[in-house]
Design brief:
By secondary structure, the protein is an alpha+beta fold. The chain contains 28 helices and 17 strands. Strands 9, 10, 11, 12, 13, 14, 15, 16 and 17 form a nine-stranded mixed sheet that branches. Strands 1, 2, 5, 6, 7 and 8 form a six-stranded mixed sheet that branches. A two-stranded antiparallel ribbon has the order 3-4. A hairpin with a 2-residue loop joins strand 7 and strand 8. The chain binds adenosine-5'-diphosphate and magnesium ion (MG). Adenosine-5'-diphosphate (ADP) binds next to strand 9, strand 11 and strand 14. InterPro entries: Gln-synt_C, Gln_synt_N, Gln_synth/guanido_kin_cat_dom, Gln_synth_cat_dom, Gln_synth_gly_rich_site, GS_Type-3, GSIII_N.
Length: 728
């Protein structure tokens, strides 16, 4: 009997839900472990408080004296909560979060010790950064990088550690993390959007970008997950036959949450409350053992931090409940994958959501301005947006037979499509008083009504307008939202900047009124971005051909998609918007393409190992049992044995042919890997991994999965899909 699999199954059977204590109301727990405005008010002097608030709200610099005061108060607060260590918490380009803990404790040289934490430790640190990915930046320039305090994301306590959100940059200033370019992009979109808002309201001083992510994930029994080397090493199953029952019955979606999973969620939500992560929604997803968690949206930088923190916290709490969280975009073949919808909007410091229709024609014109500019930005930069969500694991969703497709398009719904059609007919140049009235009353003025009954909900579009926000749905479940949010905010910033220039030119040179100029520019934008709009539900051949006619890119694999990351257009865009320098853009491309190569390489090795060292020996073992059986039958039945052992003989042959299939393909794969490894050019190498190595995974898997159906269940070494997916 295959020991590990059955040991794991035995351990998982009859697992009791782990008890969770919920004593206090959630609203009372919320933010308990966060050095937020409320806490700062209690602990900081008035000067220090104002300094930090100005930094958060208006990006003002915090001077050294204030930093010292803040550090000292943070320490007092943390010590009062039993904290012993502090860490700069950051998001390097590995995809995980990073931290290095230091104790507050310091000796004073007289045999005594004190707890110490000053402004310099708060503001800047130098982690041993040499093994974080830098895409060559640190080799070329400086060997060191440093972390620097981001006061816009509040410090928090996790366990007994005070965590200070920081950026991570090279000494020469280049960003080595997700947060730095995001902050620059948010700054760019603030500038550009505020300038446009002033056409409508002179009181607007700041525009912030908001993000509400929806995190999908699988919960698998910890012992079962540990019994599978592929899950342990790659986060997904590389083989496994689909179970007799999958998700055909749709009986899991929105069904009652199993108690074990529910208790995990309750504890997770409690921890989120303490950490100030405003989680609100939980439910079952489409696939068995698949779930979703969503918070109330927040300012984008904070929301990105909260998602990264959440992914980390989830793993730790799951373990306490004997679960492993699978964040992978496609942990199981033939079963729905996981994504992370990024709900995005822009709002003003006067409290207006710029992507929500308003109450007056003027506020609706403002809405349309931001709405149409976003569509235009997505159209112009669709390939870059696709690149921003490219990864080896997300390739299993995008471009594979699963929604959303690899083609980026925008869904806006029937009613808004009609509004845009009407606006397309606006007269060139000056508008007659009648036309203005007509537009105000019947086009722009009608929007709030129509949106209320805009209930058509397209679920498969990669980028959909959902009433008061856009929903970027193609983001992968493992992704750091910082990457897509940087790109989205940058392209919208650039678009708004161009828009302002065009409108101003019409006002100055053509002597148009402000609203006439806006209508004129929007009309042209609608005409030129028609091709990005797609209301269809399908993601099959027909749409692919149509998209091709429209000139939209359809990059199904990461190496193809990533090219848009280093096109001259992209480099110029990031430079102009001061989000990333050429060096930073190129470095990121290098890191991402290398990560891709590494992923496929590891998967190839693991698959080869499992196929040859686990599956083939099991097949041989079973074949020997059959051979013994046939020999015995021959002894008993003599000449007649062939008739009675017909099935066994054909099984023996089938097994042999699958063993041969495995061996031949594993050998082929190893050879292709060797060839790929000898290529110096990383782009070519990634292509070799993508198109020569990876396709062999399917061939190897095919034979292994066939054997799973032939071989005695008692000796099959790998925990099966039905066991992984239906253990509650
Ligand atoms: P669903 O998409 O499942 O129907 P909702 O429409 O309620 O759910 O919202 C999904 C997510 O969108 C939530 O996380 C919510 O906080 C977020 N969201 C709502 N409004 C905004 C906004 N203005 N900006 C960003 N995210 C938002
Ligand atoms: Mg959604």
């Amino acid at each position: 009997m295959s020991t590990l699999r059955f040991h794991a199954i035995k351990g998982s059977l009859g697992s009791k839900p782990v008890a969770v204590e919920e004593k206090i109301r959630r609203s009372e727990l919320f933010g308990e472990n966060v050095f937020n405005e409320n806490t700062m008010r209690q602990y900081l002097t008035k000067d220090a408080f104002v300094g930090v608030v100005n930094a958060i709200k208006y990006g003002k610099k915090i001077d050294r004296g204030i930093a010292d005061q803040v550090a000292s108060s943070m320490k007092d607060w943390a010590l009062s909560k039993g904290v012993t260590h502090y860490t700069h918490w950051f998001q390097p380009l590995t995809g995980a979060t990073a931290e290095k803990h230091d104790a507050f404790f310091e000796t004073t040289g007289d045999g005594m010790a004190i707890e110490k934490f000053g402004g310099s430790q708060l503001v800047q640190q130098e982690p041993d950064a040499s093994s974080f990915p830098s895409g060559g930046i640190r080799n070329t320039f400086e060997a060191r990088g440093y972390t620097a305090w981001d006061p816009t994301s509040p410090a928090f306590i996790y366990g007994t550690t005070l965590c200070i959100p920081t950026i991570f940059v090279a000494y020469t200033g280049e960003a080595l993390d997700y947060k730095t370019p995001l902050l620059r992009a948010l700054h760019a979109v603030d500038d550009a959007a505020t300038a446009v808002c002033r056409y409508f309201d002179k009181n607007v001083k700041k525009v912030s970008s908001s993000l509400g992510w929806e995190q999908e994930y699988f919960l698998i029994d910890k012992r079962l997950a540990a019994s599978r080397p592929d899950i342990t090493l790659t986060g997904r199953t590389l083989l496994g036959h689909s179970p007799a029952k999958g998700q055909q019955l749709d009986d899991h979606y929105f069904g009652s949450i199993p108690t074990r999973a529910l208790n995990f969620m309750r504890e997770l939500e409690n921890e989120c409350m303490l950490l100030g992560i405003p989680v609100k929604t939980r439910h079952n997803e489409v696939a068995p053992n698949q779930f979703e968690l969503a918070p109330i949206f927040e300012e984008a930088n904070l929301a990105v931090d909260h998602n990264s923190l959440l992914m980390d916290v989830m793993g730790r709490i799951a373990s306490r409940h004997n679960f492993k969280v699978l964040m992978h975009e496609k942990p199981f073949a033939g079963i729905n994958g996981s994504g992370k919808h990024n709900n995005w909007s822009l709002s003003t410091d006067t409290g207006v959501n710029l992507l929500a229709p308003g109450k007056t024609p003027m506020s609706n014109l403002q809405f349309l301005t931001f709405f149409i500019n976003t569509i235009k930005a997505v159209h112009k930069h669709e390939a870059l947006l696709r690149a921003a969500i490219a990864s080896a694991s997300n390739d299993h969703r995008l471009g594979a037979n699963e929604a959303p497709p690899a083609i980026i398009s925008v869904f806006i719904g029937e009613q808004l499509t009609k509004v845009l059609e009407e606006l397309e007919g606006v007269t060139k140049g000056k508008l007659s008083p009648q036309e203005k009235t007509e537009l105000k009353l019947n086009v722009v003025g009608k929007i709030p009504d129509v949106l209320l009954d805009n209930t058509d909900r397209n679920r498969t579009s990669p980028f959909a307008f959902t009433g008061n926000k856009f929903e970027f749905r193609a983001v992968g479940s493992t992704a750091n939202c910082g990457n897509p949010m940087t790109v989205l905010n940058t392209i919208v910033a650039k678009q708004l900047k161009d828009f302002k220039v065009e409108v101003d030119a019409l006002i100055d040179k053509k002597d148009l009124k402000k609203d006439e100029a806006i209508f004129n520019v929007l009309r042209e934008y609608i005409k030129s971005s028609r091709d990005i709009l797609f209301e269809g539900n399908g993601y099959g051949k027909e749409w692919e051909e149509e998209a091709k006619r429209r000139g939209l890119s359809n990059n199904k694999t990461t190496p193809e998609a990533l090219k848009a990351r280093i096109s001259e257009q992209t480099i110029a865009l990031f430079e102009e918007m001061e989000v990333m320098s050429r060096i930073e853009t190129e470095a990121r491309y290098e890191i991402e393409i290398e990560a891709y190569i590494m992923h496929i390489q590891i998967e190839g090795r693991v698959l080869g190992d499992i196929a040859r060292n686990h599956i083939v020996p099991t097949a041989v073992k079973y074949q020997n049992i059959l051979i013994e059986n046939v020999k015995g039958l021959k002894e008993i039945f003599d000449k007649k044995y062939e008739a009675v052992s017909k099935e066994q003989l054909s099984l023996i042959e089938d097994i042999s042919s699958h063993i041969e299939g495995i061996n031949a393909n594993v050998t082929k794969m190893i050879n292709e890997r060797k060839k790929a490894n000898s290529i110096d050019d990383i782009e070519k190498k990634a292509y070799a991994y993508c198109f020569n190595v990876k396709p062999l995974f399917d061939d190897i898997r095919y034979h292994c999965d066939k054997l799973e159906l032939l071989i005695d269940d008692e000796i099959w070494p790998l925990t099966k899909y039905r066991e992984l997916l239906f253990t509650r």
